[in-house]
Design brief:
The complex is a heterodimer of chains A (about 350) and B (about 350). Chain A has about 350 residues and is an all-alpha fold. Helices cover about 60% and strands about 0% of the residues of chain A. The two termini of chain A are about 50 Å apart. A two-stranded antiparallel ribbon of chain B has the order 1-2. In chain B, helix 4 packs antiparallel against helix 8. Classes of the chains: A mainly alpha (about 350), B mainly alpha (about 350).
Chain lengths: ~350, ~350
C-alpha cells in the first residue's frame, strides 16, 4: 500500500516538472537569503567580539552560511533535474542520480531545521560569554598601552554610548575595578597613596564611572564621581541604568529569534519542494517501468507503508552486517569447497532432431 | 539642410524605439531616486532642526520632491510614446501632442538646471543657520525645564557624540556660557557663591565642557573639568593634549555633512539633465524618422531622422523673427486704434 499515492497524466507530469523548476529557482534565492542572513549575523557578532569571551557563539552564523551555500548548489541541481524530467528521454540521463539526490536533499533539509533550532538555543552560552567577556573588558579598560588590549577602552566606551548601558550588571561594577591607569595617578599625592594602601590588592578603586555611562536623556548634568555619597536620587538619574550584559543579550537573542523564524519558513518551503521532487521522481520511474511515455503513472512518497519500508530498510542494514559474519549455527551444514569434486553428469537432451 | 541627418531603415527604427523605451524607464527610476533623495534630505533637516535657526527653509527638499514626481510622470509618458511608436494605429493619437511634449521637456531641463544651481548656492544659507542655531543651542543647553527648550540638552549631546564635535567653533564656546542650571548648583557652597559673584552677569562660568565632548579614543579617562588648568591634573598639558576631547567645532562638522549631501544631489541632478537631453534627442530622431516615411502603412522603407529641420543658425534666426513678429503684432494693434478713433 503506497503512502500518498497520486495518479499523474502526461500533461500533469509536465506541469509538475515546470512548477518544480520554478520552485527550485525560488529555493536558490532563499538559499542566498540564508547565506546573507548568516553573513549579517557573523558581522554583528564580530562587531562586539571583544566583549565576548570565547568564539563558541560563532558556530551559529557559520552553520547558516554553510547551509545557505549548500541550499544554492542543491536547488540549482534540482532545477536542472526538474527541467529534464518532463521528457522521458532526457530523464534517463538523470535516472541514477535522482534517488541519491532525494536522499541528500532530505538530509540537508534536516540540517536546515537543526540550524533554525540552534538559533533558539544559544541564549545560555551567549550569557556566559558576555558575563566573562564584559568582566575582562572592564578589568583591562585602563590598559591602553598594552598591545592587544589598547582598543578595549574605546570599544567599551562606544558600547556603553550606543547601547545606552553601564557596566556588567549595573553601574556599581565600575566601583570594583581600577579603570584609571596608574600612569595618570599622581603617586606623590597623599590622597592617592592612602587610597592605594587601603585596598588589599593595591588597586585604585573609586566610586566613579567613566564618561560613557552618562545618560544623554537626563536633565541634570552628568555626575560621574562621588556616587556612593549623599544625593542618591540624583546619581541614578544622570547615568544609564541597565547593565550592558542584559542589553547585549536581548539584542542578540532578538536578532537570532527573527533569523530563526525566517530559517524555519525556508525549511518548510524546502520540504515542500522535496515532496514535489519525490512525486516527480516516482512518477517518471513508473512511466519508464510501464514503457509507454504517454500513459498515466502513479507517484508516491513511499512505495509500501511506513512500517514495511522501515522493516525492509532495517533488513537491508542487517544483511549488510551479516555478510561479514561467519554463521555458526550447527543446523546448517557448511560445506568446504576444497577436496570435493562435483561429479560430471550427462544431461539428457530431450528429443532428437 | 537638416541638422545631423541620419538614415533609418526598419531595423534601425525598431532598435531606436526599443533603446529609447529602456532609456525612458531608466529616467523614471532616476526620477524616483530623486524623489527619495528629496524626502531623505527633508528628514535629515527635520532631525536636527533644533540646532538650526528657527526659520530654516525647506525650499530645496520640497523642490526635489516636486521635480522627482514631474520627472517620473514626463518620462513615463515618453516611454509609452516609444512603446506605441512602431504601431502606426497607436502612434496617431500621440502625434499631435509630441511637439508640445518636446517643448515641455526642454522647460523641465531648464528647471532641473535651476534646482541643481540652488543645491549649490543654498549651502551658504545652511552655514549661516547652523552658526546661529548652535549658538542658541549652547545658550539654552541648561534650560531643560523651559517649554520649547527642554530637549535642547539631549539634541546637543547626541549631535556632539554623533558628529564627533564640541561647541560651535571649538570647545572654548562652552567656557562662555553657563551650561549647568542653577537648580543643580549648591548655593550654600562658598566656591559656588564666589564664582557667581565674580561674574558681571551673575553667571556660573567655568572652564569645563559637557561629557558629550569626550573622545572615546583617548588613552586617558576623559578630563572634562578645569581644562585650562594644567596643575589640576597629573601629567596634563592642555596645549598639547589632542585626543582628550573633540577638537572640531560642530558647525564645521554639521556643515560638511549637509554640504556633502547637497553637492551629491546637485551632481546627480546634472547627470539626470544629461540623460534627459539624450532622451529628447532620441525622441526627436524617432518622431522625424516616422514622419518622413514615404508610405506610413509600409513599414519596411527607408526614412530620414534629424534633430533640427534647418541648420542651427537658421533655426535661431527663425525663432528670433517669430518673437519679433509676436512683439510687432502687439505694436501694430496699438498704432491702429488711434487711427481708427480719428
Amino acid at each position: 500500500m503506497a503512502v500518498g499515492k497520486v495518479t499523474f497524466t502526461k500533461t500533469e507530469r509536465e506541469k509538475l516538472a515546470q512548477l518544480l523548476w520554478l520552485l527550485n529557482w525560488i529555493s536558490v534565492l532563499t538559499g542566498t537569503l540564508l547565506f546573507g542572513l548568516g553573513l549579517f549575523l557573523l558581522m554583528e557578532i564580530q562587531k562586539w567580539q571583544e566583549v565576548m569571551s570565547g568564539r563558541g557563539v560563532l558556530y551559529v552564523p557559520h552553520m547558516l552560511i554553510a547551509t545557505g551555500m549548500a541550499a544554492c548548489c542543491i536547488n540549482f541541481l534540482g532545477a536542472q533535474i526538474c527541467l529534464d524530467c518532463a521528457d522521458t528521454n532526457r530523464f534517463l540521463r538523470w535516472k541514477l542520480v535522482v534517488m541519491p539526490y532525494v536522499a541528500v536533499t532530505l538530509f540537508f533539509t534536516a540540517c536546515v531545521l537543526v540550524g533554525a533550532l540552534t538559533c533558539y538555543s544559544v541564549r545560555g552560552q551567549l550569557d556566559e560569554a558576555l558575563l566573562v567577556g564584559l568582566r575582562n573588558a572592564m578589568t583591562y579598560y585602563k590598559d591602553t598601552d598594552t598591545p592587544g588590549r589598547c582598543d578595549l577602552k574605546r570599544t567599551m566606551d562606544l558600547l556603553q554610548i550606543q547601547f545606552q548601558c553601564c557596566g556588567n550588571t549595573d553601574y556599581r561594577d565600575w566601583f570594583q575595578v581600577q579603570w584609571i591607569s596608574s600612569r595618570y595617578l599622581d603617586m606623590s599625592s597623599s590622597a592617592v597613596l592612602d587610597r592605594l594602601r587601603s585596598n588589599v590588592e593595591r588597586k585604585y578603586l573609586m566610586d566613579g564611572v567613566p564618561f560613557s555611562c552618562c545618560s544623554t536623556l537626563s536633565s541634570p548634568p552628568c555626575i560621574q564621581t562621588r556616587l556612593a555619597s549623599a544625593h542618591l536620587n540624583q546619581n541614578h538619574q544622570s547615568l544609564w541604568r541597565t547593565g550592558c550584559r542584559q542589553v547585549l543579550l536581548d539584542h542578540y537573542t532578538g536578532l537570532m529569534r527573527s533569523i530563526g523564524l525566517i530559517v524555519i519558513l525556508i525549511w518548510m518551503f524546502e520540504l515542500l519542494v522535496l515532496t514535489g521532487v519525490r512525486y516527480l521522481q516516482t512518477a517518471m520511474e513508473n512511466v519508464l517501468r510501464l514503457g509507454d511515455p504517454d500513459s498515466e503513472s502513479d507517484g508516491w512518497i513511499l512505495e509500501n507503508s511506513l512500517a514495511e519500508t522501515a522493516w525492509s530498510n532495517f533488513n537491508i542494514i542487517k544483511n549488510l552486517g551479516k555478510c561479514y559474519q561467519v554463521d555458526d549455527d550447527p543446523n546448517i551444514n557448511i560445506q568446504t569447497t576444497t577436496g570435493q569434486e562435483v561429479p560430471l553428469q550427462h544431461v539428457q537432451v530431450s528429443g532428437s532432431r | 539642410m537638416p541638422f545631423m541627418l541620419v538614415k533609418f531603415n526598419l531595423q534601425k527604427r525598431v532598435k531606436l524605439a526599443q533603446g529609447l523605451w529602456m532609456l525612458y524607464w531608466l529616467s523614471v527610476i532616476m526620477g524616483i531616486l530623486l524623489f527619495g533623495l528629496g524626502i531623505f534630505f527633508k528628514v535629515e533637516l527635520r532631525k536636527r532642526s533644533e540646532v538650526m535657526d528657527n526659520n530654516e527653509s525647506h525650499l530645496v527638499p520640497n523642490l526635489l520632491v516636486l521635480v522627482g514626481l514631474l520627472a517620473c510622470g514626463l518620462n513615463a509618458f515618453g516611454g509609452k510614446v516609444c512603446h506605441d511608436s512602431l504601431d502606426p494605429s497607436k502612434f496617431i493619437k500621440w502625434k499631435s501632442m509630441l511637439k508640445a511634449y518636446l517643448l515641455l521637456s526642454c522647460g523641465f531641463n531648464a528647471l532641473l538646471l535651476a534646482v541643481s544651481l540652488l543645491c549649490f548656492i543654498m549651502q551658504f544659507s545652511v552655514y549661516l543657520i547652523l552658526a546661529e542655531g548652535l549658538r542658541n543651542g549652547i545658550r539654552f543647553y541648561k534650560d531643560t525645564d523651559t517649554p520649547g527648550r527642554c530637549f535642547m540638552k539631549r539634541t546637543l549631546d547626541m549631535t556632539q557624540i554623533e558628529f564627533r564635535c564640541c561647541g560651535n567653533n571649538n570647545f572654548r564656546d562652552w567656557f562662555e556660557v553657563q551650561w549647568i542650571s542653577n537648580r543643580y548648583l549648591d548655593m550654600s557652597n562658598d566656591v559656588v557663591k564666589d564664582r557667581l559673584l565674580s561674574n558681571v552677569e551673575g553667571k556660573y562660568l567655568m572652564d569645563s565642557v559637557p561629557f558629550s565632548c569626550c573622545n572615546p579614543a583617548s588613552p586617558r579617562p576623559c578630563i572634562q573639568h578645569h581644562l585650562t588648568n594644567n596643575s589640576a591634573h597629573y601629567d596634563y598639558d592642555h596645549r598639547s593634549e589632542q585626543l582628550n576631547i573633540w577638537t572640531q567645532g560642530c558647525r564645521e562638522a554639521l556643515f560638511s555633512y549637509y554640504s556633502g549631501i547637497m553637492s551629491s544631489i546637485g551632481i546627480f541632478i546634472l547627470l539626470i539633465i544629461i540623460l534627459e537631453s539624450v532622451d529628447m534627442a532620441g525622441l526627436k530622431y524617432l518622431i522625424t524618422s516616422l514622419e518622413t516615411m514615404t508610405d506610413p502603412e509600409v513599414q519596411d522603407c527607408e526614412s530620414e531622422g534629424f534633430l533640427l529641420e534647418k541648420g542651427v543658425k537658421e533655426t535661431f534666426a527663425d525663432l528670433l523673427t517669430k518673437i519679433k513678429t509676436l512683439g510687432r503684432s502687439n505694436q501694430v494693434e496699438g498704432g491702429d486704434t488711434p487711427e481708427a478713433n480719428t
